[in-house]
Specification:
The complex is a heterodimer of chains A (337) and B (129).
Chain A: H1 4-19, E1 24-33, E2 38-45, E3 51-58, H2 69-81, E4 89-93, H3 96-99, E5 103-107, H4 115-123, H5 128-143, H6 161-174, H7 181-192, E6 202-204, E7 213-216, E8 219-223, E9 230-232, H8 236-241, H9 261-270, H10 277-303, H11 310-315, H12 319-334
Helix pairs in contact in A: 5-9, 6-7, 6-10, 7-10, 7-12, 10-12
Chain B: H1 7-25, H2 29-66, H3 75-87, H4 95-114
Classes of the chains: A alpha+beta (337), B mainly alpha (129).
Chain lengths: 337, 129
Amino acid sequence: MSGSHDTREGLARFLGECWAQDVEVSEFRTASAGARRRNLLFDATRAGGECVPLVATIIPNAAIQVMPMEVEAANLRAAESVGAPAPHLVGVSDDPSYVGGPFFVTGRVEGESIPRRVLRMVGEHDGLGARIAAQCGDALARIHRVDAAGVHPKLPRQEEPVAMALTAARQLLDGLLQPSPTFSLALRWLERNRPAEPDRLTLVHGDFRNGNLIVGEDGLRAVLDWEVAHIGDPMEDPGWLCQRMWRFRNDALEVGGLGRREDLRAGYEAGGGSFDEARFVWWKIMSTLKWGAGLAGQAAAHLDGTVPSIVMAASGRRIAEMEYDLLMLLGPAGASG
Amino acid sequence: MQDRPTASELLDAIADLLEREVLPAVQGPLQHQVRVAGNLARILGREVRLGPALDARERALLAVALGEEAGERTTRELSAALAARLDARDPDPGIEARSHAALLEIVRGKLSIDKPGYDAYDFAGEAGV
């Protein structure tokens, strides 16, 4: 990976080519540097002196990317085309000569995205949480207007999302180090209560939650992190959003600790979406199971030496949280036959 | 028998050290790891105190859910046996309701060690379909 000086020069060269003019890059700083991707904040100054706040998302090693950058960038374009709040895409490239790996550049949306800070801001402004929940509904309805024709041809497609989720869950459970009877009970419920495959397959964000939202005092400003988007069942998104994990102790507010399901649903329907309550609950339970099995997988990755880490090890002691959530969601009435 | 401090007293001492002395002295990603380690020491302190009684209770509850005698089987073996029965779509008409009741008590026990208070939220209004 190139040094920061080279990265700055590479970004200036890239933007100069995008905009066909000389560009200067300044105020260059790292916002986050995960194992898989780096987010760099910077300002670009155009030839006329106009200063544009931007973000570069860089994959240092192309071998570990979840989704080709061009495909993820196409998701941003699709979202913007239907008026969903997503950062504006400035440019994308797989050419490693600019910054050492695939990357894209977007406009920078100011605001808060760290969940606890988001919830603190919401707590200080009456009605803000409900407004954001409704705006999430509207954003999802817009995202779900996009079908397979509106996305990159290489975007993953789930032709039968319900069957696929059940198969994936079965595989996750089969791979557990220690079987969980609670997870088995939940999967049995999910199989017995499986909805029909959806009438319409749409763009699904796949990780739409408190933590991937930029908000301000005026409400929802942008939805981030489109790297696990796919074509699938639109009700997967609200189901994932509403699992307890994303409420950060603000448990009574189902939508990310921000608002009520009614707020989300009202926004979704006002945005032209059709909210299927039973399907939503099914995906919420599936999401909770998936997250629980994921925690078990993290603990296993520590134990088998793949990712030795105290944090991964600790995930094993969070499985009980997901088991509790599952049992409460199923309810004694759900566990029959 | 070991002399005092007991295992749980020592684990609390380790947690105190990590949270009060080490945490303020470190930076960056290590901060999060130290916080996690301190919390794990607290968890282990509770496990030493509460674990044996909860394990015995879990063993009895699993036997009830299975509708079998526990016999010589360990808690871990009984738990795996119940998971296998549920996975295999056991036709026993009562197994799901029995399992649900037993597992809820078992999970509340695990949470009393791993995350006390997590089960205070009762999901009123969002459960079921």
